[in-house]
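Entries read chain and fold; for instance:
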Amino acid sequence: MADAKAKLEAKKSTKSKAKKSTKKDEKASNSTASKTVKAKTKQKFDASKVTLAELAKMKKEYADLRLSVTLGKEQDPSKVRHMRRNIARALTYLNSNKETETTND
């Protein structure tokens, strides 16, 4: 009987040690995952390389993305904001080039 109690206590102690180590592992994995996400969001958009055809494609992708977020298919609605801002950057660059071409003529 004493042997059975000793085995039971040994199992409990190993389970509690396993739980403690998994909590530490989860904390470590969560901190590295957040660092990975931050690195992905810092991608820069180069508006100087956008043509009118690419701008039209970006607008189509933006409309599709808005629809997918509205329907719940897309889980990250911040992509809509990033896409909208990239389109605005491209338009700003294209319009500024038009102004400089007309003033140089």
User: Anything to note?
Assistant: The chain has three helices and no strands. The longest helix spans residues 2-41. Residues 19 and 97 are 61 Å apart (CA to CA). The chain has two domains: 1-42, 44-105.
